[in-house]
Backbone:
């Protein structure tokens, strides 16, 4: 099986966020350790330590491809800890006696003795904090909740290929290579079709397909095709449901035609020349 290097997308980030939230919501952060490694910290380490120390975790959730930890701070304005996993980032909840993995860049020691650990071998992930009442919104529309009319309007007049438009985080945040390919296949749309020339019916099919694919992937814990694991270090299972992603040269599971590989927007793209028009 051919594997295209990819980063965690919406279902993987949602799975990690939900897993961490279930384990740490309501806990207080007693201590914060950071590694001092370059590239990892979008906010300064001093800012991160100051914002998180003694804060109570109100909620851990996803916005786009970013994990957001909402923090309550006694006598101070609320804050948010933003974790972007990058290509190889992992957010794990561990007992303190579990050996610290190599490439750990932040450890949040909780009031119950457990630790939240950010591990990232390639250091493409980013950690930052926001303080104040303004909540992090993300760069684009949320694909799991955007109404079909608004979804269709996002692509109006755009000359981008629809695959490239789906990957544009300022248009629709959270969708990456895996789920763009899978949703375009299910909607019967070729990846190079110009986004602004798709009909309302085609965009409605794509809207439904994207939401269905994302929902199923979240239920199955995301796709583990490289480094992704959930908050317990467990791999996802949606890769077993892939119809086209990473299957170039293999028969289409729907019609038997050989799946083709092209490059769209700089990303490897696989599609069925018969099922997708």
Residues:
């Amino acid at each position: 099986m051919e594997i295209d290097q990819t980063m965690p997308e919406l279902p993987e980030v949602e799975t990690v966020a939900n897993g961490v939230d279930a384990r740490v919501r309501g806990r207080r952060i007693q201590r914060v350790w950071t590694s001092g490694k370059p590239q990892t910290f979008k906010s300064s380490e001093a800012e991160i330590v100051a914002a998180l120390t003694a804060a109570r975790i109100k909620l851990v959730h996803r916005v786009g491809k970013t994990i957001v930890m909402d923090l309550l701070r006694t006598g101070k304005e609320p804050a948010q800890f933003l974790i972007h996993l990058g290509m190889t980032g992992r957010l794990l909840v561990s007992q303190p006696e579990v050996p610290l993995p190599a490439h750990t860049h932040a450890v949040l020691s909780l009031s119950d003795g457990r630790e939240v650990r950010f591990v990232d071998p390639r250091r493409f992930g980013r950690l930052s904090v926001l303080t104040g009442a303004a909540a992090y919104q993300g760069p684009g529309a949320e694909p799991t909740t955007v109404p079909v009319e608004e979804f269709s309007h996002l692509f109006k007049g755009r000359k981008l290929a629809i695959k490239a438009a789906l990957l544009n985080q300022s248009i629709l945040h959270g969708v990456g290579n895996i789920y763009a390919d899978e949703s375009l296949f299910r909607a019967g749309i070729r990846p190079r079709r110009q986004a602004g020339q798709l009909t309302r019916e085609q965009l409605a099919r794509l809207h439904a397909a994207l939401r269905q694919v994302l929902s199923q992937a979240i239920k199955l814990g995301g796709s583990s095709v490289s480094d992704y694991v959930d908050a317990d270090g467990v791999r996802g299972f949606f890769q077993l449901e892939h119809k086209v992603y990473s299957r170039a040269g293999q028969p289409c599971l729907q019609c038997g035609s050989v799946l083709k590989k092209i490059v769209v927007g700089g990303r490897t793209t696989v599609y069925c020349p018969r099922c997708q028009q």
